[in-house]
Amino acid sequence: MHSDSEEQLIGEYRLLELLSENTLTRTWLAEQVSVSRQVLLDELLPEQAGHQEDFLADVRAKAAVDHPLIGSVYEAVSTPGVCFYAHELLPGITLESRKKAAAPFKPGLLAHMLRRVAEAYLQHEALGQSTTPLSLASIHLDEHGVIRLDNLAVAGPRMPEQSQRDIMHLSEELQALVADGQPGTTRVLTLLSWMRGEHVETQLTWEQVRDLCVQIEHQLAEPSPAAASLPQSGILSTKKALLAVTAAVVGFGVIALLIISRHLHPAVPPPPPLARLADAILVPGGKKTTPDGAEAEIPAFRISAQEVTIGEYAAFLESLESLAKDHRERTFDHKNQPAEKTSHLPDDWCGMYSAAKTNGTWKGLLMTLNCPIVGVDWWDCAAYAEWRQARLPTQEEWFAAMGKDVPKPATIQPAGWIQVTAETTDRTPCGLIGMSGSVSEWSGGQAADPTNPLGGRKWVIVGGSFLKPGSNALTREWTDDRSLRRPDLGFRIVFDAN
Predict the structure, then answer these.
(1) Can you tell me the distance from the alpha carbon of 208 to that of 228, in angstroms, rounded to the nearest whole number?
(2) What fold characterizes domain 281-496?
(3) What is the mean pLDDT of residues 51-59?
């Protein structure tokens, strides 16, 4: 290995440290010079040029992974004599490091982390993405308790035994990370034993692991004079699905009862009441710098402090249902809305709303009614805004609000998927939430793309996205399609100043 690599460059990447090497590749800690960010760079050894097609096939498989918990591929480069790909350097420490340091986790936190891993691997299963073996070294925990996973996708079809392999291996490795003598210790250890196939007719699936973790999280979140325990024995029948019932009388006479079904998700507490959202924020009028660097006179306006939430949008849909009884459901439609568009239901509204009402998961995301509404097109947003006697912000208004009391908007720390009322670093001094990350947002008007001045005016999407690493408060996209819908695209609204 070569340790003195400060002056070595591959493309636009400065090689900082050689982290590992095998017979096929080298892995470097590198700096992407153009954006001053550290990345990992996997380089195909020059003498292994004959394996270039296989190497690039694996890279394409990794690039096809689209999940917020899984590390992203930035780019791949293949030129004569050079073949490499750059990917995300995940923050925090690995669970392998925690294990070596003999630093176990409280059971509730471990159940949460295991649930997140299960959610990520359910997406691998759903998309048929093959993966190399999962280990604690592939799971990262940052200082905020956020779990991220190395991108282990490889070319080829996914086989059922891959999930069985990972569930088995992870259950064995996690045992040492369960803190002793804590509320929930017995429950988590029993879950891990089930993952290994002990006391059950068949090994658990990732779906069952996720559902059991949800059950444990909710149990440990509820104050109780004595904690219930997962059963130490029992038979889980695959024909009758996952069913475990046990009762035991313990010191305080508490009866522990757990019923888990493969076809019936565990009962969860009722959703919390909708949080009171922050008031709209006043942006004074005057000359403002536009996102293209010019100056424009913008009248004063008020802008919602957060993106429109699932709970807020549900109220809008309920209003439309009432209007439909009198055939007035199109009252708030934009005057140019296509005649063939007859509904304002977001993509997979039933799944999203059901998950939000039960604090469940949807597309691998933890949902509540206070999360941003997504899967809506421009016409949906315009209709909602009309219902609220508001409108969508122009890109100039959006950037004027985002820049209020913010000298350098690019320094706002992007957030991942968040409840819009959550405390987050993605918050401007005046209280605007999720401008740099969370979800991208529709704006109300058209504008020219400065990188393509001859391309005409298009509809503008503003702000960063939790699904697009590297995006931030200055990010913009242009589209001709106002019917575009995405799981990372929402909106906020503006009102007149008075």
Answers:
(1) 19
(2) paralog of FGE (formylglycine-generating enzyme) (3.90.1580)
(3) 94
pLDDT attached to residue 201: 79
Q: Nearest-CA neighbor of 382 among 341, 450, 333?
A: 333
Nearest to 490 by CA among 445, 446, 442: 442
- Ordered by start, the domain boundaries in the chain are 9-88, 93-221, 281-496
Residue 342 CB coordination number (10 Å): 11
C-alpha 105: how far from chain center: 23
* DSSP letter assigned to residue 470: T
Residue 24 structure tokens: 């096929």
CA 432 from centre of chain: 20
Distance CA(386)–CA(373), nearest Å, equals: 17
Please give the helix or strand (H or E) that residue 170 lies within, else none.
Answer: helix 160-174
Beginning with the edge strand found earlier in the chain, give each strand of the sheet holding 281-283 in spatial order: 281-283, 301-303, 494-496
Please determine, for residue 380, whether its predicted confidence score (pLDDT) is greater than 90.
Answer: yes
Q: What is the token pair recorded at 241?
A: 């699905």
- Does CATH number 3.50.80.10 belong to domain 93-221? no
| Euclidean distance between CA atoms 130 and 153, whole angstroms | 6
Q: Is 487 exposed, middle or buried (0-12, 13-18, 19+ CB in 10 A)?
A: buried
> What pLDDT, on the 0 to 100 scale, is given for residue 275?
58
Q: Could you tell me the end-to-end alpha-carbon distance of the chain, in angstroms, rounded to an integer?
A: 67
Contacts with 171 (C-beta within 8 Å, 6 or more apart), sequence order: 192, 193, 195, 196
Q: How far apart are CA 395 and CA 462, in angstroms?
A: 7
CATH number of 9-88: 3.30.200.20
Cα–Cα distance, 203 to 262 (Å, whole number): 13
What tens digit of pLDDT does each residue of 420-434 get? 876 678 899 999 999
Find out whether 491 and 308 touch, Cβ atoms under 8 Å. yes
